[in-house]
């Protein structure tokens, strides 16, 4: 994951330096920087980065214009960074094809979390295994290995597990999980979700009635506690 | 004199005019009634004939007027005579020579009401004859009025009708006058109402009160300009502060997380980071409250599930590593019931987040925070309850009476900038809802937000 090439674009040299250092400290080995929209477009063409962090307010060519230009030739994921708190900016960003939008000031972990979530979604790893106390899940094959035997995950269980894994260690609400398996019109599917959760627990938990990996947060949702992951 | 003074002076004059007209017409009406009613008595009132008669006495068939009688006649420049039953003058005083000394029934009938040879006369019936007083010509006008009996009632009715028509006319004139003023003042009052609500004002600068309209337009423009300048200033400041704050937050976090650095340095960096986060929240709150106050925040209303919204907010707070001192619980009043409301999800998330954050900020020693959602056919209720130390009764009353939030806050270091609850109120107002504050039993604060489902 951390060998992905990130391009950070901002006209503020010091901020550029700081964002670069945040990524490098997080283990990213290829962090490029550009101080203008034009330079960013040129760099995108030459280096083909895996992700672009784009500031909105830049002299001459602003972030939106840069993004519009970029989208003519590339589908590279873009996270917009802005110092303006306008809701219109946010919508304009998404309309122009941004993948996410982060308001300045931001915490480094907030930036890293969002970038990693986008990278995980856009570039799924070929070998992805998630480890628990009594089982491990192979995300590529949608299989659970437990006590030497392989148990397959149903399509719904797999969608559910993927959503939980993307947010491992964090609470995912019932609505978000229902949406992941049923689409936008998920209301009324809470009991179906409970059934899938029970089946998933039977596959990954030692004692499904006392879950430790896939825990219930009463009234809110569920949290997946993983022991480790191999990518 | 300016236009408004002229307008009001004219209004006052026309009102006074109406009152004067009414009084004059009615006084004239009443007076004419009395003139008609007492016309017959007027003649007697010109000369005290009865009194005079008492001063003419008969002794041995001989009439004699005393000195007072003579004085009365002289004073009134009048003459007197007494006629017997045959019409012969049996006594006279100052009687002009040219007048006859005998009158027949026709003569008596002719002069009894009007004139005797140009002399206006009054007559008085005595037991022993008819006393006739003649006044000097030109001093008194004698007029004999007679009506057909059938006209008396219609005449009285007519007088009453005229009186009421008069009243109606006056009421009409008053209403017309008031209506004119109302018509002229209406747009001005509307304009003032708009101004007090912070909305732009534009009045037609025509008519009698054009000057006032122009003044209000100017005041409205000035206020809008001032508001815009303030909003722009806050927006500008918040924008300019964001990039430097990103640097502070970023580097403070980096230092805090660098294990190779001394513990004290990391701890200090942690303090910088926490306070920068407070500043970050302040900038966001300041920006939002300004935009809500000046209706600059675009409201994206859509139908959504409030239960899921509350779950999202609670999970965000929990995922944000909420201190172990706090216990955060979420419940539904009717689990499994599908609710959907129309509103701005981002703003309502912010509202709940602010309420939870408020519980945390005001209870630094920890507390249990419960969030629940309930609904009936028309109202969706969000309840945020904590079992912290709550607020005093006066603070509670102030909170429920929509008083300025900042004035109810304790002035301690822990108290936040006071925008949290203000933003909650603004968001609820945007959704036509109501905020209620109550005491939690045995201690703590309960905030209830009631939002219409549509």
Automatic annotation (TrEMBL), chain A:
Q: What range(s) does the OmpR/PhoB-type domain occupy?
A: 126-226
One example GO MF annotation: transcription cis-regulatory region binding
GO terms for biological process, alphabetical = regulation of DNA-templated transcription
Q: Name one GO cellular component term.
A: protein-DNA complex
Q: Which Pfam families match?
A: Response_reg, Trans_reg_C
Q: Which PROSITE patterns match?
A: OMPR_PHOB (PS51755), RESPONSE_REGULATORY (PS50110)
- Domain Response regulatory, by residue range, is 5-119
List residues annotated as DNA-binding: 126-226
Keyword terms:
DNA-binding, Phosphoprotein, Transcription, Transcription regulation, Two-component regulatory system
Q: Does the keyword Phosphoprotein apply?
A: yes
4-aspartylphosphate carried by residues: 55
Specify the protein name. Answer: Stage 0 sporulation protein A homolog
Q: What species is this protein from?
A: Mordavella massiliensis
From TrEMBL, chain B:
UniProt catalytic activity: ATP + protein L-histidine = ADP + protein N-phospho-L-histidine
Which EC main class describes this enzyme?
transferase
Principal localization reads membrane
UniProt keyword annotations, A-Z: ATP-binding, Kinase, Membrane, Nucleotide-binding, Phosphoprotein, Transferase, Transmembrane, Transmembrane helix, Two-component regulatory system
Where can this protein be found? Membrane
**Transmembrane helix: is it a keyword of this entry?**
yes
Q: What is its EC number?
A: 2.7.13.3
Instruction: Give the protein name, as stated in the record.
Output: histidine kinase
Any one Gene Ontology BP term: osmosensory signaling via phosphorelay pathway
Q: Which GO terms describe its molecular function?
A: ATP binding; phosphorelay response regulator activity; phosphorelay sensor kinase activity; protein kinase activator activity
- InterPro entries tied to this protein: BphY/WalK/GraS-like (IPR050351), HATPase_C_sf (IPR036890), HATPase_dom (IPR003594), His_kinase_dom (IPR005467), HisK_dim/P_dom (IPR003661), HisK_dim/P_sf (IPR036097), Sig_transdc_His_kin-like_C (IPR004358)
Q: Which residues cross the membrane?
A: 12-39, 151-175
Annotated ranges, domain Histidine kinase? 236-454
